[in-house]
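## tool: complex_structure
## caller: assistant
## args:
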Amino acid sequence: MLEMRGINKTFPGVKALQNVDFSLNKGEIHALMGENGAGKSTLIKVLTGVYSKDAGTISLDGQTVSIHSPADAQRLGISTVYQEITLCPNLTVAENMYIGRGKDVLTNWRKMNADANKLLKKLDIPAKATQQLANCSIAVQQMIAIARAVDMECKVLILDEPTSSLDEQEVEKLFGLMRDLKALGVGIIFVTHFLDQVYEVCDKITVLRDGQLVGEFEIKDLPRVQLVAKMLGKEMDDLSDIKGERESYHSADADAKIFEAEQLVSDAGIKPFDFYIKKGEVNGFTGLLGSGRSECVRAIFGADRVLGGHVKVNGEPVKIKGPRDAMKRGIAYLPEDRKVDGIIGDLSVRDNIILALQVMKGFFKPFSKSQANAFAEEYIKKLSIKTASADTPIKSLSGGNQQKVILARWLLMHPEYLILDEPTRGIDVGTKVDIQKLVLELASEGMSVTFISSETDEMLRTCSRLIVMRDRKVVGELSGDDLTQSKIMSTIAGGE
Amino acid sequence: MDSKKLKGGIFNKISDTNLLLVITIVIFLLMYIGAIVFQGSGFKKPQMFFNILNANAALIITAIGMSVVMISGGIDISVGGVVALVSMCCAVYLDKANGNVWVSMLIAIGIGLAFGLVQGTLVAYFDIQPFIVSLAGMFFARGMTTIVNTKPFNVQNPAFVKLKETRIKIPGMGSYNKKGMYISAYIEIGVVVALALVVILFLVLRYTKLGRSFYAVGGNKQSALMLGINVRRTKFLSHVICSLMAGIGGYVYFLNVGSGAASHASGMEMNAIASSIIGGTMLTGGVGNIVGTLFGVLSLSTIQNIVASAGLGEAWWTGITIAGMLCLFLLIQSIVIRQKKRALKT
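## result:
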């Protein structure tokens, strides 16, 4: 039904797509896989008219089509759910579902709201049509974006990492929906980093690497290990391997608590909690989405307003009023939402890397150009950041590489205590392993790390102690032999 | 899912736009009632209110145009200049060329449209900052006004004077003067035009696809594009509407003052922006309401009248009170919005 042939796209300094072919049949769920920077997002943006292609043809139902804007794509029956929520927060839920569609000049509010409510109910989304979108949680907003796409009577539905902010129940709901649409003959392109999800719902897989097509495969012909190997272009390190490499930090001060909090509470609506971390320890907060994991570490870092509690750094009572205080005490924090909290898009990779260090040094004492370059080159190499040069604006890098740049920024500070909030969200398996290894390596050198991830197996691989949260409250702490998937699950669920 | 109740109670039902509108109207009413209670006689007469409308019809029209641009995430500081240029061109045409009143109206609309088309094109299709474009537009309009005629002068054209003097009487709202004579309350033609345009623009913004696109583009340009909205055309049209309103506002202004002068409507663009903001339009775009802007203009001029009737007629007192009022409004807006966010969070 959909055929893309010989697609080429070049950005300044980067060949994002080289001669890529892609095809999709009616009633097929087709996974598009690849590492960060492999060209998945670019391919999709070419298809939806956000980018214009340099060469190649797109045909739909045998007819060549030209797509110059997202509106063109919608008209042809191609609807898209993007990874970042692309809705307008200032409009109502119903408006977000219907704006930009249809030819009516006037808006019939009553009909629109009624239609929207019907659809919301059908998909079991806890929102009202007349509510302002900003009043909904991120997960609900994502479901609304999906509802909009599904309602468009599309021929092709593109789901670009739609599941990264959904919980398991919602993901199941989405899969049910995808199967229904498949039965109706809709072709679905599914981009995700979760291998389980690919094998659960998809029929075919197309793998891209470095902007080139690796191949198209039937799902049954491609076992997981091979898929990962294809994506990385090499035989992957077995994930369980890094467990063996783990070497805990041994030294006289290994038992020293470098950070300690008592009854810490912030204005983000979490219950007061106690917390400590030892030197060279890797621990983590786990719990369901919205259980307050991020809010806890934000309180530790002073990113939310701290309302009460006592904090000790290296045994010495201190007050942390804001991120600056925390940074002065050698604490670094890598935020969950890198778009909002982390990167400054128009600054170069180099400037983004030296930013935090520059702030601590003071803006009136700038680094020399060669010094800044040396820092940047060192970390680009160390973390193998894929960028055309240190001068490239960070916004033109792929998600995983942006994440590495932010990581580099904090590593450059040589913090005593590093907080990583979902550092591996939305990035590929290879980079994930890189980051996990790096965390363990840093810890063995004496850095303390708090790690948060939605994927429990990732937590199990890296952390030696887990703090379990439920409903914005700390409900348990697991370490040693208790660190198993089932024990975590039962603690989260509240069963003994 | 039923257990997941919607959080935040009342705040959940109201959008930012409507919340700010309610704040504006409440503050305006409190202020006006306060004026009646404390300032006494003048404000008790309905004609006081109508005078505010008569004197500010032109500002209402330019300010609602400004709101459209601001909701779309832009700004237009050329409107004051356009108003002056329209007044001058129409004055010269009517007086020196002894022209037709109806044609002079077309001239006003034509000037407004021309500014809108050029500025809209530069902003939407050449990606130039709206502030810069309209800054150039402002200098151009002011300059042209002086070129058309250097000296200020009054228009004597009989047909025009007749139109200017037309008063629409409002039954039952009059009052008796000291001699016991009944003076009926009235509004000028400009007020009718202004109120009609308020209604039209309100409906356009509320019920048409284009109107909602303004909000979408102002709220998040990138998302609006992804949702299939023609962002460039939407921006372009927002500027066309704003300049067109400035053209019509210019004519209403001209009708009110009856003269042409290069110094006319100086600072009017700032009053239009201030009125929009007081009316709950956010400079960041995506939030705002035409009815709010109407109340913004009313609030602004009521304050001016209160200052004047308190015997502090000098210009600087007016300026200072407006500054204070703007700060107060913005403070209240920001506090309420923050409260809303907090209520939704927990």
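## assistant note: Chain B is about 75% helix and 5% strand. The first strand of chain B starts at residue 153 and ends at 154. Handing back to user.
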